[in-house]
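U., I forgot to send this yesterday:
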Amino acid sequence: MEINHTEFKRCDVVKVSGRVDSSTAPRLAEKINEITDAGRFRIVLDLQDLDFISSAGLRVLIGAQKTCKRYNRGEVVLANVQPNILSALDLAGFTPFFKIFDDTVSAVGNF
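Result:
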């Protein structure tokens, strides 16, 4: 799994590629926690190159969303979600918790 983080004025873009499973999910959680600990709560997750996400990865996404939405500070939005990842989110019942955008530009523009 690779994580690339870009900080913009209004939000942060985290590009995740590869597989997010029980062995790599803690690294993703650590990266998101770094961002939120810095007081930045508007996060775009670019999942264009994400091949697989396990329940551990889904747990990280929900935890990040809860942290960002607490006290109405911000939120996590998803961009470039592949069909297999979208079906995993849908199967878990998590699609209502996230705004999902077709591209990163419109996701960043949301903020």
